[in-house]
Amino acid sequence: MARSRTPDAKPATFAELPALLSSAPHRLLFLAGAIAVLLSMAWWAVELTWMRFGLGNWPQPSIPPGWGHAMVIQYGLFPLFMFGFLLTVFPRWMNLPGLSRRHYVPVAAGVFGGYVLANVGLLGLPALLKAGFVVMLAGYLVGTTILARVLRAASNRIDHAKSCLLALMLGCVGLVAFLVYLFGGPETCAWLAIHIGTFGLLLPIFFTVTHRMLPFFSGNVVKDYHVVRPRWSLPVVWVLLLAHLLMEWRELLAWRWVVDVPLALVFAWHAVAWQPWKAMRPGILAVLHLSFAWLPIAFVLYAVQDVIYASRGELLFMRAPLHALGVGYFGSMLVAMVTRVTQGHSGRPLQMGAIAWLCFALLQVVTLLRLRAELGGDVYLWLVIAAYGWLVAFLPWVLRSAWIYLTPRRDGKPG
């Protein structure tokens, strides 16, 4: 029997580090994602500071800064965590052997390597920006191919795996569209890539994973909990999201309410059907339900925005619905789910802990600050405050998470 490690286990030495980090998909990719959480927002915070206050010769990207922000966040930051999670759970979902280093290390190298190059490229270096997205696409293609092979080998090809794989395939399409733009194509290709990132890649995967894991976790902990996981949810949400994506891309805002009102109702139904009032303990379960609450809120904002625009021609709230979705739902669920996986796969108790709670609580404040920016006044000042707030919220959580990824499991088990 392996001897349990003490709570003050030391990080691996430099020689041991490659083997430790590559011992499980989540270690390598979650560490890369944790770095990206700070790197992406650090650049954006400085960029916003330059816009609001001026920073002398701060280098400007060769593309609109907002587009750069959207692309590296949506295709770099969040997907690092998503690939780390999916490369771990895909085989488990379908009762197949786990993947080996030769499968997931190239994915991490491609997605994170491309992400870093693209971020450097945003400092006025267009050649590196292009190279970064090319390398990132290569990482996506490797990761998507590996997951497709796992799905093909399974006798039980579950809907959740199919949904996640479809989203990653759309992510590849989005990266191709953005590269077309970078190499001289029309701006509409960039807009398509950005909208695919939100409504074809991130939201389908986040909702699919929530749909599978939140009722499962709740049912395992809460007595007399009724597990609700309807099969109709995923196809209905997929159809509505694709319609929303196309309407966003083609700027058919007057008709967007046709899909956003049903999406708000579907997501609100799930929020109630998953009985959050029964799942407020332990905290590591409660935060999953609290994070999901941002999804119906975001689409209620979208629906109200759409109805007002269709009736009066006024676009209220601006990007508030988008950031209720991106910062509120994606950001909060990232903290909730990654904390759970990190705790469990490091041999630690399934508890939030003070640092994770602090990050989660501050992130709710950051979300509200970002929404406040859309209500007028000194908009860029509010944006700067929210961006630096993100860094303050995440810094302790990132440092603690990185320590865990660089430290052997407490229980002495592999992985």
Automatic annotation (TrEMBL):
<dbReference type="InterPro" id="IPR010266">
    <property type="entry name" value="NnrS"/>
</dbReference>
<feature type="transmembrane region" description="Helical">
    <location>
        <begin position="284"/>
        <end position="304"/>
    </location>
</feature>
<feature type="transmembrane region" description="Helical">
    <location>
        <begin position="324"/>
        <end position="342"/>
    </location>
</feature>
<feature type="transmembrane region" description="Helical">
    <location>
        <begin position="190"/>
        <end position="209"/>
    </location>
</feature>
<feature type="transmembrane region" description="Helical">
    <location>
        <begin position="28"/>
        <end position="46"/>
    </location>
</feature>
<feature type="transmembrane region" description="Helical">
    <location>
        <begin position="379"/>
        <end position="399"/>
    </location>
</feature>
<keyword id="KW-0472">Membrane</keyword>
<feature type="transmembrane region" description="Helical">
    <location>
        <begin position="131"/>
        <end position="151"/>
    </location>
</feature>
<feature type="transmembrane region" description="Helical">
    <location>
        <begin position="66"/>
        <end position="91"/>
    </location>
</feature>
<feature type="transmembrane region" description="Helical">
    <location>
        <begin position="253"/>
        <end position="272"/>
    </location>
</feature>
<feature type="transmembrane region" description="Helical">
    <location>
        <begin position="103"/>
        <end position="125"/>
    </location>
</feature>
<keyword id="KW-0812">Transmembrane</keyword>
<feature type="transmembrane region" description="Helical">
    <location>
        <begin position="230"/>
        <end position="247"/>
    </location>
</feature>
<feature type="transmembrane region" description="Helical">
    <location>
        <begin position="354"/>
        <end position="373"/>
    </location>
</feature>
<protein>
    <submittedName>
        <fullName>NnrS family protein</fullName>
    </submittedName>
</protein>
<feature type="transmembrane region" description="Helical">
    <location>
        <begin position="163"/>
        <end position="184"/>
    </location>
</feature>
<keyword id="KW-1133">Transmembrane helix</keyword>
<dbReference type="Pfam" id="PF05940">
    <property type="entry name" value="NnrS"/>
</dbReference>
